[in-house]
Amino acid sequence: MSPVEDPLAMIGFHEGTRRFAECAAGGTLVGVEVGFVEDAWSFGEAFIGSVRLICSSKKVSVEYLGDQDDTFVFGRLNLKTIRKVECEGAGGVAGFKWRAAAIKNPDGAEMRQAGLVVLCNRAGNAPLEMVLEHSPAASHTYPKSFTCKHVTQYAGLDSPKLTKMLMWFNRKSFAALEPLECA
């Protein structure tokens, strides 16, 4: 497992520990589970405080820790509100759309993410958009996006899926996911 130094995108910001992660045992990323921090004084809404990578192999390989069950959580543990998306079939995760959390008090507020859209591959079709929000009924726009298809070296593949990423986190919160490689 060797980290790649040129991320394909940046979802979040650099803070805390940086770990290279990929699905172990030949697995692929098929979903994401997020937990929301609801009690942060700097923000006007709940934001993503934890991320779990869901792998087809049920194992995730984390730098320095080796293979772990894919129940491994990057960020704050034991959050009350959890949302999960799993892509159907073998298509895997094609990419993401995301939006930053609204800031109430700029003193001490970093760029936390309030909403994440998982883009699931579908054979011969545009990716299916699966939304992860604290309030599922809310309607939002997602100004930033990344898909494997937008990267020149993967554009020719039928349904490229995310395989490797850098995760930034600390015990208080998830900070960033940087896609590194698709296949």
Write the SSE topology.
Blueprint: E1 11-12, E2 17-23, E3 29-37, E4 47-55, E5 59-62, E6 66-69, E7 74-75, E8 81-86, E9 93-100, E10 113-122, E11 125-133, E12 144-147, E13 162-169, E14 174-182
Antiparallel strand pairs: 1-14, 2-5, 2-13, 3-4, 3-8, 4-7, 5-6, 9-10, 9-12, 10-11, 13-14
Structure description:
The protein is mainly β. It has strands spanning 11-12, 17-23, 29-37, 47-55, 59-62, 66-69, 74-75, 81-86, 93-100, 113-122, 125-133, 144-147, 162-169, 174-182. It has a six-stranded antiparallel beta sheet, with no helix packed on it. It has a four-stranded antiparallel beta sheet with strand order 7-4-3-8, with no helix packed on it. The protein has a four-stranded antiparallel beta sheet with strand order 11-10-9-12, with no helix packed on it. Strand 13 (162-169) and strand 14 form a beta hairpin. The protein starts with 10 loop residues before the first strand and ends with a strand.
Key terms:
183 residues, mainly beta, six-stranded antiparallel sheet, four-stranded antiparallel sheet
- The radius of gyration computed from the alpha-carbon positions, rounded to a whole number of angstroms, is 15 Å
The termini sit apart by: 16 Å
Return the average pLDDT rounded to an integer: 90
Q: Strand-residue fraction?
A: over 45%
Contiguous low-pLDDT stretches (5 residues minimum) are none
Succession of helices and strands:
EEEEEEEEEEEEEE
